Amino acid sequence: VLENQDLKDSIKPQNVEFRSLNFNSTLHWQPGRAREARDTVYFVQYKVYGQSTWQNKDECWGIQNHVCDLTKETSDIQEPYYGRVKAASAGIYSDWSLSCRFTPWQETMIGPPMVTVVHSNKSIILKLQAPRSPYKRKRGSMVPMTNYYDLLYQVFIINNLLDEQHRALVYEGKDKVIKIEDLRPGVSYCIVAKTYVPMLDRSSAYSSRQCTML
């Protein structure tokens, strides 16, 4: 019996947590402290905070991965959720390991905007596009994150002559088309942008660099 209890404890999943980007929300965990046996499989359940019954996530029932996509199950973004995982190995089942409470609207990370650069002779024109959520409109297009948050765009310019690391903030606001003027011809400039959520005081990572020479 003791051996079984040891095995139960040693295969119990560790560090169960939600990770979320633009409401694409996945549950992650690490294997227990036993060197993971090849036949260890995992079972995932979820529920809304306050509900008494757990729901099985069928696609993550008896899987070998350490990640489970719960985007669809957490689509009511204002609700708090829990996830939990148990492991089985050699016919022995561990206890459940519980995640912290996860509320998508408060905790999802917002991605950077998509940036397109169009340049004219002494200026750069940028087109910015908000990141998209995984949720679809009736017509099939993806709902942008601006539907859920008041988003600002922060645009930075890097003058490659001066310093690779120096990013000067040249714009902050909601416009989707921005003109940066009075630039020097013959100089290479790179643009990066972030999405900023004032209400949560949270910024995205930088977008990938878009470079242009005037």
TrEMBL record:
Domain of life the protein comes from: Eukaryota
InterPro entries linked to this entry: FN3_dom (IPR003961), FN3_sf (IPR036116), Ig-like_fold (IPR013783), Interferon/interleukin_rcp_dom (IPR015373), Type-II_Cytokine-TF_Rcpt (IPR050650)
Cellular localization per UniProt: Secreted
Domain Fibronectin type-III: 12-107
A Pfam family per the record: Interfer-bind
Gene3D superfamilies: Immunoglobulins
Keywords from the named record: Disulfide bond, Receptor, Repeat, Secreted, Signal
Predominant place of localization: secreted
Gene Ontology annotations for the cellular component aspect, listed alphabetically: extracellular region; plasma membrane
GO MF annotations in UniProt: cytokine receptor activity
Similarity-based family: Belongs to the type II cytokine receptor family.
Biological role: Receptor for IL22. Binds to IL22, prevents interaction with the functional IL-22R complex and blocks the activity of IL22 (in vitro). May play an important role as an IL22 antagonist in the regulation of inflammatory responses.
PANTHER family on file: INTERFERON/INTERLEUKIN RECEPTOR, INTERLEUKIN-22 RECEPTOR SUBUNIT ALPHA-2
Protein name: Interleukin-22 receptor subunit alpha-2
Source organism of the structure: Balearica regulorum gibbericeps (East African grey crowned-crane)
